[in-house]
Amino acid sequence: MNTEAKVGAITLAGLVLLGGMLVYLSGVSFGDKGYPIQAVFGQVNGLKPGNIVRYAGVEVGRVADVRVLPEGVAADILLNPGVKVPAGSAFTIGSDGLLGEKYINIMPPRELKGFLVPHDKVYGENPQGLDEMMVTANQVLAEVKILVKALNDVLADDKVKAALKETALNTREITANLNRLTLTLATLAENNQGDVTAMVGNLKAMSASLKDTAARVDKMITNVDNDGQTAKDLRETIAALRQTSSRVEKMAAALEGVVTDPETSKNIKETLRNARDATAKANKMLDKVSDIKAETSVETLYNSDKHKYQSSADVTISTSPRDFTVIGVSDIGEDSKLNLQLGKSGPAFNQRYGIIDSKAGVGVDAKLGNQLRMSLDVYDPNDVRVKLRTQYQIAPGTFIVGQSADLNKRDEKTSYFGIRQAF
Fold first, then answer.
1. Residue 9 belongs to what domain range?
2. How far is CA 265 from CA 251, 274, 277, in A?
3. Which residues of 257-276 are buried (b: 16+ CB within 10 A; e: fewer)?
4. Do 383 and 394 fall into the same domain?
5. Are residues 12 and 71 in the same domain?
6. Which of 74, 166, 191, 371 could staple 393 via S-S, CB 3.0–4.6 A?
7. Same domain, 275 and 308
8. DSSP state of 206
9. Keywords in UniProt for this one (predicted)?
10. In a shared domain, residues 267 and 369
């Protein structure tokens, strides 16, 4: 082979290799070419033929051509052989980095409803271009500029500046005052720790005394009422009286038409009248007995000046919705005092009169809501004394009581506080 032939052969081989490389790099296949799909976008932002097509991030083909259509821009996609794209997949345009090469990304649907066939047309989602981002950023900057200008207009006012300065100073003063208050409360709690301990001890002693008083009152009521037997016997006696009177009335009525003797007839009529009166009185007594309600209460009070306890107990008997009677003993122990009062109940006030602390007197109870009640007693005509009580309900049947006795006598005035329990 001469020199010219060798040069020609080498040149031809180089051209063949170059052509093979170009075909390989361009993705052109001379065998199975897969199947084409057309994706239509509103804009493609620099997409061009040869760009990669990815399915869920995996390269599956390339863009064969980009053409302008009346409804937008069509990108002809050539998928690799064996790749099947589910129907309903989302087609979007992305880029590798901010200024990188564009590519088409296919995202599969959540539910599989078949596959696209060759030459199907799909509509892709328009990408968010850099120009649109710049326009949005300009709008945001314009709004921020307006906001800054408004703030400058507000803060430039001398009155607003003075108000802000005064607010800052007031906040600093409030903080300092709160610090001083906290320090004062801590010091007060530390200095009065002994008083708090003593108060807790007094409350414990008061509760023990209250329990003891309640036991004694319960025993007294049990002895008097005989566990309810007394009231039961009373009702049975009145019922028997009513029944007997009714029978006598019926017997007299039966004899009234038979007896002809005038004197006997007169006696029968008198018997009838007496029987009717007895029956009416028995019915009246039964009604009163059924309306009777009793409430027992005990209390223990404490005087912090004299370190003295005082226990009291009473029974309030309501004979009707408006009438009641109070029977009790105050200052149980060495100086027990009797309370025996009759009263009338009203919507806002209760009136009482009778014996108060073993002396004749009157009293008024003011109902201040459902939980608060105040009482004023004036007694002892020979040496008038005034007592004021306040009680507040903290639980069903349980009250906190404050009492000041002998308010009109400065040297003898005493104050108590404690607990009252009703049963």
1. 1-28
2. 13, 14, 18
3. eeeeeeeeeeebeebbeebe
4. yes
5. no
6. 371
7. no
8. H
9. Coiled coil
10. no
